[in-house]
Structure prediction request, 130 residues.
Amino acid sequence: MQFAATALSSIISNSFGGKKNNLALAAGCPPNVITKLTSGQIFTPQTLNLICEALNDSDARTLCAAVCRDHLPKRFHKIISTAESKPNQRTLPPLDEKTESIIFDLADLCSRDSGAREWLHQMATWMFDE
Prediction:
């Protein structure tokens, strides 16, 4: 799998308006480097550091986890998580990136929208026999 290439492409789409050049400028590296990385080239520690410095904490954490997954045997992928641990806060079990993103997006939506929150509560009663 090319988790890093997929994660970087997603970050570029979501945080840099879909423009590789915008990330290249922010990271201070040539645009062709970003193109190669989104095509599956392996990250060097120096390139990963440059790019992470140009990202917000969440995107940097996601990218680092993806780079690590590319180097681990598949049976160890579940030990890598982008969930942040805080005291007295529940953490998610290891999930694929898309599922984790959906859960966090849903939590964000429910924190702002009471209708979404009510819908989620109803879904929980159907799913968990509450």
